[in-house]
């Protein structure tokens, strides 16, 4: 090969490598932008997961509190039922006593 042919080959290869370098730079820019989007999306996802976890914890606490309130109300309902039954028995005794008083002849 003559020196001019070598120079032509070198020029050709320089152009090819410059194009390859430009493509790699484009790919690097696109990958960098994509990585940034992924990182931003990941940060947003972490925030969302954290918010959901906090809400789930809050819901669990509220459910626990509601369960305690329901149990307390159930105990009060049972106590009220027992009082109602006791009052019903007292009313029945009073009615029987009233019946005995009203069955007596009037005093003169």
Q: How do the strands and helices of this protein lay out in sequence?
A:
Blueprint: H1 3-103
Structure description:
The chain starts with a helix and ends in a 5-residue tail after the last helix. The model has no long low-confidence stretch (mean pLDDT 91). It has one helix at residues 3-103. The protein has 108 residues and is mostly helical.
- Given the structure, what is the number of helices? 1
Average per-residue pLDDT, rounded, comes to 91
SSE pattern, N- to C-terminal = H
- Indicate the percent of residues in helices: over 70%
Count every beta strand, where a strand is a DSSP E run of 2 or more residues: 0
Major sheet details: none
Q: Note poorly predicted spans.
A: none
Quick tags:
rod-shaped; 108 residues; 1 helix; mainly alpha
């Amino acid at each position: 090969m003559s020196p001019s042919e070598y120079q032509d080959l070198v020029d050709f290869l320089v152009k090819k490598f410059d194009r390859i370098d430009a493509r790699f730079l484009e790919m690097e820019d696109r990958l960098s932008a994509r990585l940034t989007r992924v990182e931003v999306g990941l940060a947003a996802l972490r925030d969302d997961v954290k918010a959901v976890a906090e809400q789930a914890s809050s819901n669990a606490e509220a459910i626990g509190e509601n369960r305690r309130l329901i149990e307390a109300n159930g105990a009060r309902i049972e106590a009220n039922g027992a009082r109602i039954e006791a009052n019903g028995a007292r009313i029945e005794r009073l009615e029987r006593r009233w019946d005995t008083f009203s069955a007596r002849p009037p005093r003169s």
